[in-house]
Every structure is written in C-alpha cells, then in structure tokens.
User: Fold these one by one.
Assistant:
Number 1:
Amino acid sequence: MHIGNAAGFSVDRMDVGGPVADALIGSGQPAALFYETLAERTLAIAQRERRRDPKKGYTPDLAGFVGPVLKRSVSSGIPIIGNFGAANPMGAARRLHELAKELGIEGLRVAVVDGDDLREDIRGLRTEQWGNEKPLDLANTEILAANVYLGAQPIADALDLDPHIVVTGRVTDSALALGPLMQHFGWAAGDWDKLAAGVLAGHLLECGSQITGGYHADPGRKDVLGLANVGFPIAEVEADGSIVVTKPAGTGGVVNTRTVKEQILYELDDPTHYLTPDATLDISNVQVEQVGPDRVRVTGARGRAAPETLKVTISADGGWLGEGEISYAGPNAMARAKLAAQIMRERVNYLDLDCDLRTDLIGTVSIHDGDTGELTASFDGEPREVRMRAAANAHDEATAALVAREVESLYCDGPAGGGGVRRSTTWRVKTGSVLIPRSDVKPRVTLVTEDDL
Amino acid sequence: MISDDLIEVPLYEIAHGRTGDKGDRLNVSIIPFDDSGYDAIAEQATEARMLDMFRHRGATEVRRYDLPKLKAFNFVIENVLQGGVNNSLNLDGHGKTLSFHALTMTVRVTPAVLAAAEQAHGD
C-alpha cells in the first residue's frame, strides 16, 4: 500500500498535494493521502476561534489544502485523511461539503473521528503524571483545551465506511498513516512488529518534506536541489511491514539515507520506547539502505504492546509576549545596539513594568545564547549590522505591548541611526500533559453525507 | 609522517544532525557523514561534554542513545529551551537552530576519518 503525505504542519505549502496524489493514482496501488496540520498548542487557538464563531475552529487553510486534490482523490477512490478538524471536526466536515459543491463534486462522503475533546470532562477523570513533567495547576486555571491523543483504530474504523475524506481532531500523528495500513492489511492489536512498522512509516512521513530534503540543506555539505518545488513523501509499505520512502517523479528535493536518518530521530527520546496509542516502537534495530534514486528502504522496526494509558494535552492561558526590534548598521553598529539594549533594560525598571525581559543582539550569537547573554558577552566580532531585539513575557497584554512600544520610542530617544523597527504583541498558550486510562476514552466515528447537512 | 596524527575538528566536519523539541526538552541527532566517523563520536561526544555545550542555557541533564545499526546518536537534553515554545523569550523557542551549536563541539579524528567525511560532503 502507498501512503502519501501532503502537509507536515499547519503553515505548510498548499500546492504540494497535486504531485503526491498523481503519483499515488499513477502507481495503481491501494493508497491514501494524509495531512498533518495540528501542533501541540494549535487546539487552544482553534477552541478560541470556535467560541467566537461556532462554525469555525478547524484548520483555517482547510480548503487551501484539500481543494487542489479533492476532485482527483474522489474520482480515483484514494481517501484523504487529515487532523485538520482541530477543535471542530464536524465543522470541518461541513466546510468540506461546501467545498465539494463549489468544485462541482457530488455525493461526497466525509467520516468524522472525534471523542478526543475532553475539555468538559478532564477535571473529573483519574489522571497520572506524564513522565517527569510538572503538571499544570488546574485548580485556578481556565482550561482552554484538553485533548487526548487518539490512535489509528478509529481511523481504520472510519475507512470501513468507504469515505472520500476522514477528518479527525487530535490523533497521534503517526496514526494518520497507520490507520489506512491497519484497515488495508487487517493488522490488529497483537501484530506488534507490523503495527510498529506502520507507526514508523507514519513517523517518517508526518513532517512532510523533512524527509525529502526540507530542514536539511546545508550548501556544500548536504546539497538539496529544487527546494522551491520540493516533493512530498510517499511510503510504499508491504504486508510484512517493510518500507520504501520515495517522492513523486519530477519534483525537487532528495530522499537519501541522510534525510531518512535525520527524520527517524526527529523528536525522539528513548529510541527503544517510542510510545503511541497503537504500539510501542523500538527503532534500535532499524537500518536504512539506498535502493534507487530517491528511494530508501527502511527495515527492522520492532514493536511491543501499546501503553495502557493515553496522553492528554491541556492548554491554558500563558500570558502575553511583547517584542520589538531595531537595526544599527555601519561604523560602531555593535556599540550602538548594545546601548539600545541597555536603555531598554533601564526603561523597564524606570517604568516598573512587571515582566521578564530579554534583549538580543541579532548578528552576534544571540539565538544560541541563554537568557543571561553569556555567549553574546564573549562575542568579539564587529558585525556590519546588528539588530537589537527586546522581548518580554507579561501577565497582561498592556504591559507586553508597552515593552514593544518602547523599542519604537528608540527611534527618537535612543542611539544614533536606529532604523527598521517592527513590533508585535502575541497571546501565549501554555500546555501540560497528563495520562488517563485508555478505558476512559471513547472515540466516535460518524459518516457525514450531503443528506446529513 | 602525517599518517596517524589526530586532527582536532568541530563535529560539523564529520557529522550532521537535526533537532526536535518536546516542551523544554530538546533532542539532537548526530550522524556521521561516513560510517567510519562513528567510533570517534562514540568515544568523545560524551553526555558530560554535551551538557557543557548547553550549560549557558540552563540545561540540567543529557542522555545519549547510541544506534550502532543506524550509525547515529540521539542526544536528549533537558531544560535547555528556557521554557520552550510555550514560554521562551528566545526567538527560537523550538530550538530548531541548536543542532548547529551542538556540531561546534570538537573531536580528534584520524586523517582517514576526516578524509572519508570530506569525501561524503555534498553528495
């Protein structure tokens, strides 16, 4: 079975699905195409959207992602699977039906997977600490979102209803690929090595181009051609769980053992215990082999039973971030930027602002530095230009906004020749995770046709 | 005689890597360009040295997982993201740029290991 991916995050390119869909159709093999668009904190923002407008709360670019491939996916019978339902999978299903109408597609069938949203219930559930993470103090906190990571079984169940699209809320990313593999091959609990291979296939694909040359290029060391037209990945998975990773012909990027090794280890902790709701994956025996141009075989995934608990990520208000930046260039740029940073620290004290402030000298070593500026202090270069950045965390929007505004005041009240101010104030979400017993989770699968609207 | 004298180079000359984040925890993969670089990294890129590389950011613990079949290493670094994407004041709350900091750690390698890595650059 061939599994394609056409998005690895919510701000991924929206024009990459076409070549993947065409390659899946051209292969003549059983296939599915998935989109992963849900970051950890996205659900809190989506819940806020939904409260403002009950029709919203799904991935804002839903139509942008699905529109370019929907016609060919429906006519070829290749299902689209996406967690783009976010905080409102039913709302996404309605929007997809509207989109089908706009595109002249009749008889669209959308299967919705939900039951992940535990915002109303989480305070009443038995929870355990997740790893060594300090839990959020829920007693005095408004819970903005609480979603359990569902596994692949409800996606496989949804595919049994023969839909054109499966829309989910929070599921573990790899489930978006494992679901169709389970449904196609009939893998079930107990087939741990095969389920683990499916988890690995999903893990390799879930970040889209990160396995086809994205997040990889380093000119002269790791050259990648054609990133402007990078091809998104396809995994060819056999019934025994062996995987070949490739990408559509005629696209940019590269699939080689380096891109695959980097992605195997991406966001991994203990390589023998990659926990998912579907299986525990052990990659310590995994090997990779280049078997053709842009074709890498991945073998050796081993599996053990899935954990008895599932992870719930809870989001709460995280205060406000205020940021401002100003540039200094030419002779003595470094000294003028340093002076600007010093003035900002003095101003925050002078105004007695209740916030945590950090200043950066961008153009030195700031992004690798800590909040105390140890690396920057030992930097002895003389850059041709330096951009001073001030950033502050505050409980309230007004304080954060004032710090950002103070950077713009430096035009007139700061060092000579400061220009190019940009400033912003951003709402922050904090997240924490807990574990709950699997038996407390009730995934739900619903088919939504035109008649249901 | 130039044959066996060890040469001190940044990891960047013989390896590549990628970071990923989960909360305030970072993982960094370190992957030799040529398999012959694996042993030098295994011997010298210790957990203690990696912790030193990130102490200025408040890192508290490093665990190294060796993957001899894959010819790669996974370093897991605790409390290095100054609050992570939720709370960091650093522009890069995810720590996406930090693989290139880890790759500045120096190691001593034989000319043969260095030559094999250089041969593999740009492939």
Number 2:
Amino acid sequence: MLSLPNELLLSTINSAFPCRQQIIRSLAILLSLKTSKNIVLYGSNATGKSAIAKAVLGLLSKSLPNQGTTLRHAIIRTAECITPRHLVEKTVRAVADVVGYKASNRCESTSQMVNELEKMAFWMQSQHSYPSSRLVLAFDGIDRQSMHTAALPALAKLAELIPGVTCVFIVTNAMNGFLHAPGVPHIHFPSYTKAELQQILSHIVPTPQLSGGEGETKDVWFRFCGIVWDSLSKHSSADLVSMRSLCFRLWPRFIRPILDGTHTAKEFSKVMVVSKYLFQDEAALVPSIVSEAKIPIGTDVPRTMPHGIASQLPYYSRLLLVAAYFASHNKPATDQLFFMKGAAPKRRKKGGGTAKTRTSISNHRKISRKLLGPQAFIMERMLAIFSAILADADGRGKYAKGRAFGDVAGSSDVQMAIATLMSLRLIIKTSNSGDVLEGTSKYRVAVNWDVIRAVARSVGVEPEDYLEE
Amino acid sequence: MSVNGDTASISGIDSNDQQAAYIFTRHEDVPVLPAKRRRGGRSSINGLHHDAAEIRFESLMGGIEGPEFVDLRMKLYRESWGATEGRIQTILEAANEDTLSKVTDFVLNTTIPEGMGTLPTGFIATGPSIASQSLLFKQIAGRLKSQINGPVVTLRSGDATNLKAALKQIIRDTTHQGVDPVDDDYMLAGHDGPNLLNYDLELLHRYVVAHNSERVVVAFQDSEAFDPVLLADIIKLFDCWIDRLPFTLLFGIATSVELFHERLSRAASRCLYGTQFDVEQTSSILERVFQVIVGPYVPLRLGPNLLSSLMARQHDHVQSIQVFTNSLKYAYMFHFYTNPLSILTQPRKKTDETIQSLQPLHIQTVRELPSFRRLIEALIGDGDKDRSIHAQDMLQNNSILLKEMEIYSCMNSTKLLNLWRRMCVLTRSNKMTLSKIELYLQAFKGTLNGSDTVRGILDSIKHMAPGDLISLVDTITGVVKTGDSDYQLEGWLQDDQEFVSKLQDLRMKTLKLYDEAKKAGKPVRSSYAAHHKGVRTTVIAQKVQLSYEKSTLSKHDLEFTGVVDSLTVVLKEYLTFDQPQTWFLSEVWITDFVSPSKDVFTPRPRHVLENSLSNPSDKLPGCDPSVEILSSSTAPTAILYNMYLESGSIINIADLKTSFFSIMEGEDSDDLDEKTLLMLFYQALAELKLLGMIKQSRKKVDHLAKSAWRGL
C-alpha cells in the first residue's frame, strides 16, 4: 500500500527547487498513496506551489509504472476558465487528452462531468494491464475566482465518487473546512526567508556583468540581494517574484559606480553608500508600466507628472472637468457662496430654532468631506458651475476673443465635450438610469487634486478659491 | 414624433405634432421585416456612392442658371475638393508614419528582460481627440498585418462590455483574418471531440499553431473607455496564456500613461512591460494641413472670419483633424453650391473661356459684387476723367466688363502669388517661428501691413551686426532663388530681379565694410546698435550732475548705418501686403461665411428648444408675436413651459393644472370643455417629460421635480 517514491528521482526536483525538500517529499508520498483522495497545497504568492506540484506529478507519472501502478495527471489552470462551465469542459478535455479517450459529448454541468470522468477512469483501467491505474487532477489557483469556489465541494467529492481519482487543490488561502470534506491533508508552503531568498537568487547571474567575471558578479549580486531585502522588500512583504524583479531593476543602477571605475567590486560598502538613494526611494516598489530600459542608466528617472491632459484637452473640456471637480467636492449648499456673483452670506434664521434643527446640528457629519472622496453630482449643477467659472476663467489662447457663456450654452459642442470626458473616464456616471446627458443623472469626477490643479491653472482658474476647506 | 416624421420635418413643422392621437400607417414600400444585418457587408457603401452620383446641384439665380453651369460647379467642386482631400490624406498618413514604423519595430523585435513583466505592451499616446484614434489604429492594423505573421485584433470599448464578449471578439476577428476562413472554421471546429466554447482561448491557440504565427497583437483602441476591472481581467488572462500565445498588447492612451496606470490593478500592471509611443500632436498636423489648403495654387480659400472661427473651435472644443477636414469640406460644398460665380475658379485659360460664355444674369451678379462697387468707387474717386469713363463703360458695356474680368482674374492670381512670396520672405527673415495660420489671418484681414511682426523684423535689422545682416540677406535671396517647399513656392528670381539686386548691392557694401573693419581691428556697428549716449557724472560742490555725451562713431560705423537704413527701406518697401478681400472678383475664390458652418457643425439643440418653448412666436409660423405668451392661443406645451420657468424646484401638479386651465379658459371660452383641456394638459406635460424637463418628485407625492434649468 505504501510505496515510497524513488529518492534518487526526488533529488533532481530538490535541486531545481532549493529550500523545499521536506515539502517535496511529503507531497510525493501523499501522491504515491493509493488511498489519497484530496490534497490541498496552500501558501502565499510565489512560493512554488504550482511549479512543485507540476514537477512532482510529472515525475510520478513517469516513475510509478515500475512499481506496478500507472499514474496519469491533468493540471487545470483555473485562471484560464472564465465561466463555471468553461472549468467543467476544460477539466473533461484535459483528462481526455491525458488518458487518450475520445470524448464526444458536451459537458455542461458538474454532474455530466462526473459521468464523463467516471467513464474515462474505467476506460483507462481497461486499457492498461497494470493492476491499478490512478488519475490525479490538479486544480491550480481555484480559490482565485469567486465563481469557481462554489464548485469546490463538488470537486472534493469527485475522488470519493470515482475510484482511483485523486484531486489536488492549489490555493492561496486554505480556510477552515472550505472543501466541506473531512480529513483532507494540507501541505503548507511557507514564504521564503531572507537566507532562502538569497540562496535562490544566487542561482541567477545578472546582467550587466562586472568586469571581474562571473564569480565576482555573483559575489556582489549575493550581497546586493541581501540589502534589497533588508531595505525594501522586507517591509513591503514582497514575494520571490517581485523581489527578483526589484533586484533586476535596481542592479544596473547599483553597479554603475563599479562599471564607471570609480569604485572596485571589492569596495562593496562604499558602493552601497554611493547608491544609498536607491534603497531609500520607495517609488521603486511600484514599477512604472512603461519600461525604464529606454532611459539611459544613471540619469535620474524623470517623474513625469500627469500633466498631459492639462495641455492636451480642449479649452472647454478642461473647464468642464474643473467644474465637475468642484461639483464633486463641494456641498450643494455652499454653491451659492462660491459661485454666485455678489452672494451675500445666507441669512440666518431669526428667532428660536426648533428642536429639529438642533438635533440635525448634533447629527452633523464629522468626517471631513475631503476624506470622503468625490461625491455624486447632477449634470445640471455641473453645468451651472461651469457657467459660473467660465466668467472667471481667462480667455487665454490665440483665438479667444470674448468667450461668453451665452455662446456655448446648450451647444452640442459642450455636450460632446462631456461625452468625451465620460468616455475617457475622467467623469464617471454613477446612476444607471436615464440618458447620458439628462439633467438629473448623476456623475462623479475621477481625477485627483494634482491633476485638477494643473488643469485649472491652465485655464486660469484658481481652484483653491472655489473649494470649501 | 410620427412615423413619417423624417420626411415631414424637412419642410418645417409636422402637422401631426399637434394631434391628440396618432394613427400608425405603414408605408407600402417599407419591408415587413428589416433586412437581416450582415457583418462586413460592402453593398451598402457601394449603394451610397451610387446615390451620390445622381445628386445634382440646384440651379441658382432663380433657376435661370444654365444646366451646363450647374454641372460645371459640381464638377469643379468634385475636382477641387478631391485634390485637397487627397493632399490632406497624404499628410495624415505621413504624420503617423513615424509612429507606425516604431510600433511595427516594437512588435517585431521586443524581448523582455527577465523579471520585468511578461506581456510586451505599447502605449500609444494619441492625445485626447478620439476621432483620430480610429484612423491611427486602422493604419496600425493594416501595417502590422502586412509586416508580421500573425493575427491583429482591434478592440473598441463598445465591442467588449465583459470578458466573455471581449474574448469572443478576439477569437472571431482572428479566425476571420486567415487566408481561407472556411478551412480555418473547419479546423477550429475541433477534430477531436465536441466543439470548444467560443470564448475559449484554446481556439486562438489552435489558430496560432496552425498558422505558425509569431505574434498575436491585440490593440485596445480607446483603452480609457474600457472598464478598468475588465482590462485587468483580460491582462491577467493573457498572462496565463503567454507561454503558449505570443501576445503583444497595444493601448491607445488619450490622457496619460500615469492616469491609466493608476486605474489598473497592481496584479495586472505587473504583467505589463511597456513602451510609450507619441503621436504627432494635432496642432502641428493642423499647421501642415493648413498650408496645403491655402497654398498659392488652390482654387478656393477660406476667409479670415471663417478660418478664425474654425481655429477657435479647434482650440476650444475638439482638437481633431477629422472635424477640421469635415468643416473644410462643408465650406467647399457651400461655396460651389451657392455661389454662381464659383465657375471662375478654374485654371486661367478655361476661366477665360467661361467668362466669354457667361449668361447675362451672371454679369448682373458681377455688377452687384461688393468688390466691383469698390473698384468703381476707386475709379471714380480721384476725379480723373478717363477713369470715370472707364468706370461707366464697365457699368454699361458687357463686353468691356468681361474683358476687365479676364484681366483682373489674371491679375489676382499674380497678386496672390506675390502675397505668398512676401509672406514667405517674412517667415524666413524672422528668427522666431511664426504661426503660419496667424500670418495668413493677418494678411487676409489686412492687418499685416505695419503689424508687430513686420516692425519686429525691421527693428531687429537695425540692431544686427554685419555678420548677421549678411546671413539674413543670404537667406532672403536664397528663398527668392530657390523657393520654399513649405509654401509650395518655386524660385521667383525673374519676377523680383530688382529687389534681389538691391539686396546684393547692400550685401557687397556690408561685406566690404566688414572686411575693412576686421583689418582695422575694430568692430562695425550701426548707430542704432551702439550705445552712443554715455552718461557722464561730475561732482561739483557735493552735488552730482549727470550729463549725456554722444559717443563718437567711426566712419565705418556711419557708413554701415547707412547700409542698414537702406536695407530697412528696401525690405519695408518689399514687405507690403495687399488685402485680398478688397480685390475685384475676390468673392469668387474666397469663402467667408461663418454662420452656415456654425449651424451645421455646432448646433445648439438645447438652447433652441428652450427658446422656442419660451417664445414660440420665434419658431412656430402660426403664432402672433404680439399676443402675450400666457394666453390660450399659444401652444399648450409652451404655456406649460413658461409656467414651469416661473416655479420653484418642485411643482404642485394641482396648482399647475388650475393655472393652466385658467389661462386656456381665460379670454374667450370657446368650445373647450374640461375633457379637451385635460387632454391638452396631459399632452403638454408628457411632452415636457419627454424632453427631460420634469419628473416625478420623490419628496412629495403630488409634485413634479424640475430637472432642467433654462440657459445651461
């Protein structure tokens, strides 16, 4: 019943996945057991779950025949399945491919899948002369998408329903009893420690290399990785993948003093002091989606502000965007104060206030409006604010002579500008009902203060003047 | 509002609008079922062309204009616009050429360094004009299809509302790109087992394997309009498949990459390895397009008013070449459709022929031209007898007028060419780059003479050192000799021989002075450049006295000052600009009507609607403007609207009804019984609701909420 896997073969996997011997062995043993039904592998991102499962399964499918059984495995990457039905079909197809069975029917539900799998398992056993043949299904990342979690208990039952089937679930977070099945063995993949990370990364030879050859490069790289971990990755709880990419990105800039010849590779601590700024700038943790390869190394990466729209959008679109920002961030009650010409402060009610007003004051919202983010506004209000700030905006620009609101009021160009802003998602519609340009449909602005300030200045509006707080 | 509203609304008000109830009558020729929609059908486009061939211009001048002239105008419009459009198209294609080649290179040759994301991604910063994105992406798709081995799919936000739809679209577009779609369909249908789901990327994988594709390019045309969550899902899914499918993504970015990055989830943005491509900005393309449309040899020009209104619209509202081209086309159409004299915009010889064959009414029209009047006034004005007689002849004798027209139309083209040459010299002699549009506007408005630009140049000459002066003169003579490609001018040395020889003389003198001064070891400067006034301070009895002292100028300096002066005079003489709109027959080749273009391209639907409702006599033909608005003779909707304007933000329906009834019954209680009144009231209310002005209030049950304010 218990046939341990070949240690010699396991050692090849061990060398491919350093620091994971124990896990690999326990997984291999669990998979070798004929009675294994469900196995759960869990651990956070980039801890080697999928890769190790794949390697071990591949190894066992090759090596087990010697021991009198045959093992076939199918790995289903659930991230590729975008509907539950897709998952079902994919599973059946993957199994059919593995056992060499010609599936003919469409599979639309879980029960049909069980049927098909049962058929295939029997067929497989009849095909092979070995006393027992086993099928392993590995569902990779099945807890990532909420629509697949509903199928989990059913998949966990698969192994019970069909003899000779083992299911491996690879998940990030193994909640207590999420399979609704008792006694499922779990294997935890812990996050790598600093020493482990350094050991793994030391297998990589980075580019560009130092003049001293590979040995020297590796030496510096090893220590460099340790510093990156201590200064940046440790606090951002980075995994192996992001740490590796961080190291790759910082490496060329770090070794620049060595390549320039100002320091030698031996003076590691001096180089570190020179490049201290690299480890202090946390911007490196959020890499830009535009690759920095085009920017010559050594020059400070220009932090381009998102000012693009301030200069590119047409004049009235900019004003509308500013108006939308005001509408989103001011209370409607204060509009009179900010946007009406010659607005006198609201006359206070004279006489004793009623009890109701008192309570409303005490219930007054304490949270500052700025912290609540942009609020929804109705289109008419935004247009009214637009007309108000248009008077104050300067008619800068070559062709602007006497811009007046009367010229653009109700014009299709303004409506087009609003529609364009919406399709650029600078303004977002929050109410579902109603036509796009209907007066009462609600919107919210979707750009932040920095952008708005640049945009407002470009049309000559001083945004601070119009915002409460 | 009615079934046949489309046809009726052209001629004015649809009579059915005022009906209480509508009877649906089906037209005989309307098919019972709409024709089945087909994808990629080309027949409809061909049909349009067919129709366009049959459309003819209307005969002008009260229908007297001969059919040959009508056809001629149409032909001229087709020719001139066709040529202009072709040139604009060339510019647009060339403008994107740089981006295209960069993108193609990127798609073909990008390799991602280890640990830097997985999906090669191009961000194409197109600027905020969404209209130009479609052309660019069409070009990119076309280019990539011809250059790479693999499918190219362009996704628009409208196509892909969810992940499934997006994948379906990608797979469908891919499989229909193949050389033999039938074969592909067969292959994709799955030779083993049941068909795959139509959103399974396995299909794409099969296609890629079968065709040995190197790249799968997926372009998101208006990436900002996509739901960011959907985009993140797509990116993550592609990331899963990257080991089997060689994806390359392209995003059209209208705002900025940073804003785009902010919206994308961290997990998705980690997959991307991006490069940014910039597209030439609309404003610089506009400048080039502009040069094409106003060049010295085009048949039709835009007047300053029209042009500045178009430019203002570009700056304020749209910033898109496509819109500008459309407005331009409309201006061409408008000119050739409405102006009977537009037949004179042909090349010289043909124009002469046409002039000889003009109808009498044409000649009458010429005599009514403002520019003709101006000409006559100028002839009479100075009291010279011969000229007065000549003016009289032109007014009375047709054949003399025709001859004059020939002379003037010839003269105009020469004058125009000269104008262009002078503008070219002006641009070249200025150190700063002048906006050509601005220059053109000034020239046509007639404000270029003695303008800041001209004065600036003349002033800068005064302060120039001899070396700079020589190079300036060289530049100008060079332009005159070889012409300027920006202005589409060839060299015009034979026409301006005198000017050039004067310049050359001055150049020789300067050179001589320069050399002599060099030998003497003292720099030459003109009296303008030298600070010839020194301040001398003397202290007498503890008081400071300031006195000015003229610094002495050498003989060379004085001579050089003379040269500078004469150069200024020569240039000033040369740089005189005639306002083209004052020339006789300028109406033939200048179109300067702003309002038609405005009406067509920038309608103000809301404004018009509000105005016509609040003041129906302006728009409705049957209304008497003298009658008060709130009276029973006005349309019920207008009455209700005016009451609506007077009310607060919520309106009590009962009150509204009472006052409506009192107005309708008010003066002459005809045969309007209560039922009819109620019906009118409801109809008016329903129409206001349809226009989005009122809706049921949530605060109070029997109230209406106001949802549109006037004048916004």
